[in-house]
Every structure is written in structure tokens, then in C-alpha cells.
Amino acid sequence: MMSGLILAGGRNRGMNGVHKAFLVLDHVTFIERQISEMRKCCSDITIVTNDPMPFLKAVDRAVRVITDYFPGGGALSGMHAGLTLAKQTNVWVADCGMPFISAKAAKLLLDSKKEGLDAVIPWIEERAHPLHGVYDRSCAAVIGSMVEQGKASFPALLEQLSWVKLPESVFEEKGIDSRFVKAIKTKEDYEALLAWHESLKMNYMNGM
């Protein structure tokens, strides 16, 4: 089992102030979809956000909702807070704007995390996707130091960690669609997602 960590900070400027976690796909919010998926392989789930109240109202009490220890430190600040309170050694980290996070993908990442590794990260379309990775809880110390020094970026973090990439072919072999790393960042992204999903439903109804 792992701990689950959902990063839900930021001002969501690209969504005109609407929080990505509460975007809806097929009548279900992103955050509901993510919690449901994480519960397949996580013993505990934490949401880190700079605005807890909407989440406290939306999720059940079994999900922990916390804020950053270092306000304004971005996604890494949220990771630091969540990793610090994680109950398990291994922590599945995901961004709240990802509607298709995958427990099967997370389990593959965990299976590849050998002794001495700090993280295993998907390598899709020739680049790392650190916001759907499995990290060791001990990474909190490294991240906390970076945030304090104002070096809070994922490229800088990956230079500090001992990590491996899990290539796209490994997920394909297991029948896992690489769309699990897709993140909605703007209103246009969301509109494209809705259009794609609607086309899938239409094709299904037409027997295609």
C-alpha cells in the first residue's frame, strides 16, 4: 500500500478562477475521480491546498485536508507538507488537474521502486511527468530545504533525487493508456477534454 497525495494549490488563473479540482467530467468532479482511484491502492489520502474550506465540504472525513508549511512555495511546498504527514513510506503524488490518474500505473511505478531509490516517474512522450510519480516519504527533507532556499522547481528537485523513469512502453504493455498523465491547465484544455469525451460517448452509442 501507498499513501496518496493530491496537490490542489495555485490560483487557477487559466481556469478563470474555477478550481481545477472541481471541474466535472461525466457528472463527477476531478477530485472525486482522483480519490476513488487512489483508494484502490492507498491506505490514506491527503489533499494539500491553500484554500481548505471547499475541500472540507466536498470530501469525506477520511481524507486529510492540509495547507502548506511554506505558503507560496508552489507545488513542491505542497509535496513537502503532504510527504511529511504521509503514513506510508511510498507516496503516490498527483496534480488535481489530472482527470485520468491511474492506480494501475501507480502500482507499476511502485513495483519499479527498488531499495535506495527516491522516486519512480513516468516517462511519456519523451519527458518526465513528476506530478504522477511515486516518491519516498524521506524526500520531504530535501524538498523542504529547497523551498527554504527558493529553489522550488521540479527540474531542480530531480537533480537532487535518485530516481528512475518508467518508459511509456511499459505502460502500453499493461494496457494502460498514457492519458493518465494528462493535466488540464486552461479553459481551452477543459473544453477540448469535454469535446473528446462527448465524441467517445457518441461513438459508443453509434456502435463504433
Labels describing this entry:
eight-stranded mixed beta sheet, 8 helices, alpha/beta, Spore Coat Polysaccharide Biosynthesis Protein SpsA, Chain A, nucleotidyltransferase activity, nucleotide-binding, Nucleotide-diphossugar_trans
Notes on the protein architecture:
The chain has a single domain, classed as Spore Coat Polysaccharide Biosynthesis Protein SpsA, Chain A (Alpha-Beta Complex). Helix 3 packs antiparallel against helix 5. The protein has 208 residues and is of the alpha/beta class. The chain is built from eight helices and ten strands. The model has no long low-confidence stretch (mean pLDDT 93). Strands 1, 4, 5, 6, 7, 8, 9 and 10 form an eight-stranded mixed β-sheet that branches. A two-stranded antiparallel sheet has the order 2-3. 40% of the residues are buried.
Shape designation: globular
Q: What fraction of residues sit in β-strands?
A: 15-25%
CATH topology assignment: Spore Coat Polysaccharide Biosynthesis Protein SpsA, Chain A
- Rg (C-alpha, Å): 17 Å
| Oligomeric state, counting identical vs distinct chains | single chain
Kindly give the count of domains: 1
Quote the distance from N terminus to C terminus.
Answer: 38 Å
* Count of individual helical segments: 8
Helix percent reads 25-40%
The unreliable regions are: none
**Which structural class matches the secondary elements?**
alpha/beta
Pfam family, one: NTP_transf_3
Organism: Paenibacillus rigui
Protein name: Molybdenum cofactor guanylyltransferase
Keywords: Cytoplasm, GTP-binding, Magnesium, Metal-binding, Molybdenum cofactor biosynthesis, Nucleotide-binding, Nucleotidyltransferase, Transferase
